[in-house]
User: Which sequence fits this backbone?
């Protein structure tokens, strides 16, 4: 693609108490594409997303790197300047839709409030656009819903409202942090379909944070797998899921029970636990849990090209990954 | 072992009253569980699947005696739970234990792992302090933890390790049945598979029966022998895993199965 990336992060480091928890991370999201950032709890994927928004918790600081949105730096902006970026150029949806909405404010008001931040709109016009947006995200009887409160809506409907709020100003980038994790499986499928629809119609680039490879396979174009603060493998979804080049990715894919997999058999488990940021091993951080580890793994492997189509992995033993999967 | 099922549930209803108005007039009750029947035999895994609010957890709680049934019978090892005196109830409690979803809130943060595991023994007045300590070490080994874990507090352990502790505690009274209420749902995928492996291994070694309450059809497909699909308080379909997955009879089961992300990209390679 020739267009400049919508989001480009270069060498971004986020530290808590001086310990890096996101460590020299680089990624980009191209116009109209969905990049899935995948990993287990504590790998730094949510902090990566929050660092883009400049919404890191107080204990965390961004200590290095550059973040570009549509070609211009945003990591150097003040909070006040970021206020103009969040919502208008970057939309956000989070895991808990019900907790993300104001329980005491009518649905319509929560949508028009977002709209009004980008300039004066008459209240009839704002309401009209709110109703149209609710209709667009698949909420039935939108004219009734704008008068209701979040508690009157189901979890799935609240997530649709969140998506309406995030999309009403047509941001260039949507950051979705585990958008379907808290939802029932039938609702999850509907929300994923809606996100794919909106992306197709509006051309929004999406940074999707998830731990669920099923969701990744369903809607992502590219994937970046994080482990202990670093990206260990990245590339087009079909490449990475089809021929993983990092043993962590391969094991992650195989360790999940499958609806079409064998039953009542021991799953290929990843032994041990994700190390805390304070005791990351020297070199490859996965080596203590890795069945392929050798002496060379005491040295940090570079994120190097493997095979075709910008598929890259940080492993000295990429050629042997088929042995674990 | 007798041939009758360990747990026999017949036409179980659990309704919750709803008070309306300032005079406290009764509205229509919430029918969380509304007339369900199933059996659980020794050594088997019956999964109850359904979405939030379907009544699957309430069913588990009723079997454990944590919720009072509105009507219907729950027979445990041939005894009606409703007709039991306190002594019988205590004896039955030893045979049916539970593992909850969130290991962080299921353990007392100020109580050592060893004390948490042996608390059921203490409550039931089983063994001496010394024999209980030995039992704790034995249980920790059984769930794959070091014996010295007994002296530490839950805060020193990861989520997966805490779930192992919760499982060890559930095993302390040598139960026949463990109700697993979304027991792996809150865990990371790499930890989830470790715990599923542990549950399968314990079932093989100890002949446990599991009532496995879950919303995750892939997990259920992996671990269960039979499945009961619940929707809005009733079982819409039950059968063997093969029957439910290969030939679902109810429209709702089909919807649930269709909603599971199942890209061919993730299919196991031959």
Assistant:
């Amino acid at each position: 693609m020739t267009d400049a990336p919508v989001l480009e992060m270069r060498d971004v480091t986020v530290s808590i108490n001086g310990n890096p928890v996101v460590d020299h991370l680089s990624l980009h999201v191209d116009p109209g594409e969905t990049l899935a950032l995948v990993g287990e709890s504590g790998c730094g994927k949510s902090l990566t997303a929050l660092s883009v928004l400049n919404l890191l918790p107080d204990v965390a600081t961004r200590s290095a790197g550059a973040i570009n949105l549509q070609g211009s730096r945003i990591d150097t902006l003040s909070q006040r300047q970021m206020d103009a970026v969040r919502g208008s150029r970057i939309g956000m949806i989070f895991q808990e839709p019900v907790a993300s909405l104001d329980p005491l404010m009518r649905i319509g008001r929560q949508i028009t409030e977002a709209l009004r931040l980008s300039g004066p709109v008459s209240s009839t016009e704002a309401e009209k656009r709110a109703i149209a947006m609710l209709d667009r995200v698949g909420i039935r009887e939108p004219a009734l819903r704008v008068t209701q409160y979040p508690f009157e809506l189901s979890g799935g409907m609240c997530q649709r409202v969140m998506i309406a709020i995030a999309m009403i100003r047509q941001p260039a980038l949507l950051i979705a942090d585990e958008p379907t994790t808290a939802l029932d499986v039938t609702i999850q499928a509907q929300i994923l379909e809606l996100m794919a629809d909106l992306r197709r119609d509006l051309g929004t680039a999406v940074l999707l944070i998830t731990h669920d490879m099923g969701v990744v396979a369903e809607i992502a174009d590219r994937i970046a797998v994080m482990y202990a603060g670093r990206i260990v493998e990245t590339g087009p979804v079909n490449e990475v899921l089809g021929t993983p080049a990092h043993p962590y990715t391969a094991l992650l894919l195989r360790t999940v029970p499958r609806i079409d997999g064998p039953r009542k058999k021991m799953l290929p488990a990843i032994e041990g636990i994700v190390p805390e940021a304070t005791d990351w091993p020297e070199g490859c951080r996965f080596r203590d849990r890795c069945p392929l580890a050798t002496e060379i793994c005491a040295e940090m492997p570079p994120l190097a090209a493997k095979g075709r189509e910008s598929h890259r992995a940080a492993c000295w033993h990429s050629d042997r990954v088929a042995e674990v999967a | 072992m007798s041939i009758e099922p360990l747990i026999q549930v017949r036409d179980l209803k659990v309704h919750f009253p709803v008070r309306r108005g300032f005079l406290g007039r009764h509205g229509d009750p919430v029918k969380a569980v509304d007339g369900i029947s199933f059996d659980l035999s020794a050594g088997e895994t019956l999964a109850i699947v359904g979405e939030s609010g379907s009544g699957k957890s309430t069913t588990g709680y009723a079997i454990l005696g944590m919720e009072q049934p509105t009507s219907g019978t729950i027979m445990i090892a041939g005894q009606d739970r409703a007709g039991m005196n306190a002594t019988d109830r205590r004896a039955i409690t030893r045979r049916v234990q539970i593992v909850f979803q969130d290991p962080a809130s299921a353990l007392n943060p100020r109580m050592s792992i060893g004390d948490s595991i042996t608390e059921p023994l203490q409550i039931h007045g089983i063994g001496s302090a010394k024999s209980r300590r030995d039992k704790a070490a034995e249980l920790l080994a059984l769930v794959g933890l070091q014996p010295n874990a007994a002296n530490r507090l839950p805060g020193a352990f990861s989520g997966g390790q805490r779930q192992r502790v919760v499982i060890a505690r559930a095993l302390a009274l040598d139960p026949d049945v463990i109700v697993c209420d979304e027991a792996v749902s809150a865990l990371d995928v790499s930890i989830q598979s470790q715990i599923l492996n542990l549950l399968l291994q314990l079932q093989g070694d100890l002949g446990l029966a599991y009532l496995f309450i879950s919303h995750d059809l892939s997990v259920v497909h992996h671990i269960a022998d039979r499945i009961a699909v619940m929707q809005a308080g009733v079982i819409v379909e039950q059968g063997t895993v093969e029957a439910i997955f290969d030939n679902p009879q109810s429209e709702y089961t089909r919807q649930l199965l269709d909603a599971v992300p199942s890209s061919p990209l993730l299919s196991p390679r031959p």
The first strand of chain B starts at residue 7 and ends at 16. Chain B has one domain: 7-253. The radius of gyration of chain B is 20 Å.
